[in-house]
Please model this.
Amino acid sequence: MSASKSIQIILARQLASSIATPILLVDPSGTLVYYNEPAEAIFNQRFDETGEMTAAEWTALIAAVDDDRNPLPPDHRPMMRVLTERCPVSQTMWTRSSDGEWRHLRITAFPLIGEKDVLFGAMSIFWEIEGPS
Amino acid sequence: MKVTLWGTRGSLATPGPETARYGGNTSCVGVVGREGTLLVLDAGTGIRRLAATLDASQRRIDILLTHLHMDHIQGLGFFAPLYRPDVDVHIWGPASTKLSLRERLMRYLSPPLFPVSMRELPCAITLHEVPCAEVEIGEFRVSNALVCHPGPTVGYRIVEAGGSVLTYLPDHEPALSALAFPSLPREWTSGGTLAAEADLLIHDSQYSAHEYLGHVGWGHSSLRQTLDFASLSGVKHVVPFHHDPSHSDADLDRLIGEAIAGAKPACRVTPGLEGTTFDI
Model:
């Protein structure tokens, strides 16, 4: 059984599950606690199959490079930057999951900060950029 | 612990012959431990009667506020121990993102809403902001967490040395945090961890199933949702609480009966009647 969730994370999941745009939700340690159905294409796996994944697990599932095709280490990706910098991050990048297809994405991630400056996690939203890969 | 319901009505005090049995006072529950520690859960209008039962030797009182909506604090200014200089009153309650608990309480405990300012009260008041880490109050261990209700609102889980568990969620809409309720495991359900395996759960049950459809997002539950939440949480005994002001005693008898027949909960259900005491 996974750990109990804060109301901020519970409500964020509820919002994500009712949105047609891909959304990932991580806890303060970077564990991916939820991704919605539209985001399943990015992982090429369903959330019901993977369940929660640690930061090491889920970042390993996706190859990521910047617009100049330089590899992006996990701590340079938007979601992990948000957790360390505690401020919103927006950037474009290329990703590839197990289906082998490269996707050009614009990603906006933001921290979920509660009262007393407590960090509950982060949420990121993905837009696929149209164009040849 | 001994748990007494001093106010079971939601939203607005509702005195009158048609509500005499379930009671018209707003939320207040007294909890007394084996060693005499007194916890007061919310300060609705029921707190006035609670105060009348207190022994003069009581020197410390902890008031645990779930949130600061009027029906949960209206009785505070009429709580007699606040006017005794020999009493330490500890008030636990949520701050907001911009205002401290003191500033929020001062909005009520100051003119023009109330003639006496908080700083003029003779008792010694200590304020504690929640949510916070688990704390020990006398023989109780008290944990709290934000739950689904408009504005900063917490629920409380009170564990007595020896293991009895009381969970208090008087204003709570867990169905809002799930597309279909109940469908997610308890750790993904608002209040689910607070209520897990509790011996006694006092829970919001403001609406009938039909009424809930017109009040989604108002922060309250239907009777059926309360019973489903109790089953999900694995509680042993649930008390439907925070009754809608428009519900008469006859309405509540009927609605609770219908909800039990529909939900067939595994746990015991005791309707929240003002004056009822539970020994757990």
Remarks:
- The radius of gyration of chain A is 14 Å.
- DSSP finds five helices and six strands in chain A.
- The interface with chain B takes residues 1-8, 10-11, 13-14, 17-18, 114-115 of chain A (CB under 8 Å).
- The mean pLDDT of chain A is 91.
